[in-house]
Specification:
It is built from eleven helices and two strands, in the order H-H-H-E-E-H-H-H-H-H-H-H-H. The chain is mainly α. It has a two-stranded antiparallel sheet with strand order 1-2. Helix 1 crosses helix 4 and helix 5 runs antiparallel to helix 8.
């Protein structure tokens, strides 16, 4: 079934975004939502330009950026074809945001948690191996700040993120920290990632972070890796609303 010439639920919301950004986000959302199937052609330039009230130059610019994200392929004589999801760059913030937004059963967040837990576990082990006195002191201060903010969940959550970023920096693993932080920062922008934490969530979170800190401070590589991975996986299991339905 061809989609050329048809505009399928592509919305043109009121926004202060650049027209090319608006168009690109709308098409990403439509592709991720499944309104266009793999190998199906998007509407031609002229139809998109008219629908969104933009120039054909802006449409071409947006298609180029979508191609860079792995969502489409521009083929001579066939138009702009949607690529299978295995080709998508899910580390791209716009793509990842759309994938999470359309994942009703939260499988993406399950997978994200496993990947993040593995990466941060490795980085915690590296931090335990490489940390100097200054690094251990900085991590201890991050933990103390978390403890001081247990009465304010929003600020506590920010301090939690700082603790994790500190461990990443201590690991000196640029690639792993870049991937893990991208996943974590994007996921945190969704209410469903915060989920439905139990009443003792903060106390348990502090205890788990303390275990990570103590293992790193002691230079215990294996314990640091286990503690960090277990914390990330277990904390999501506690919050995940799909587990409670």
């Amino acid at each position: 079934m061809s989609g050329r010439g048809q505009i399928k639920d592509l919305q043109a919301p009121e926004t202060r975004e650049r027209p090319s950004d608006m168009l690109m986000r709308a098409i990403v959302d439509s592709i991720v939502a499944g309104r266009y199937e793999a190998e199906q052609a998007l509407p031609p330039e002229a139809a998109l330009a008219e629908h969104f009230g933009v120039s054909r130059t802006i449409v071409r610019e947006s298609m180029k950026r979508l191609e860079e994200k792995g969502l489409v392929a521009v083929q001579q004589g066939r138009g702009t074809l949607v690529r299978p999801h295995s080709s998508w760059n899910v580390l791209d913030p716009i793509v990842l945001s759309a994938v999470i937004a359309h994942d009703e059963e939260l499988h993406t967040l399950d997978e994200l948690t496993l990947v993040r837990g593995t990466l941060e576990g490795v980085m915690a082990a590296q931090a335990a191996e490489r940390a100097g006195e200054e690094g251990r002191s900085e991590l201890g201060a991050a933990l103390d700040r978390m403890i001081s903010l247990t009465g304010d969940y929003a600020q506590f959550s920010e301090a939690d993120a700082v603790f994790h970023r500190t461990v990443m920096d201590m690991s000196e693993n640029f690639l792993a920290s870049n991937i893990a932080y991208t996943l974590y920062s994007r996921a945190r922008s969704f209410a469903r990632f915060e989920g439905d934490p139990p009443s003792d969530a903060i106390d348990r979170t502090v205890a788990e972070h303390r275990a990570v800190y103590e293992a790193i401070a002691a230079g215990n590589v294996a314990d640091a890796q286990r503690a960090m991975t277990a914390h990330i996986v277990d904390s999501w299991e506690r919050r995940n609303p799909a587990r409670k339905s």
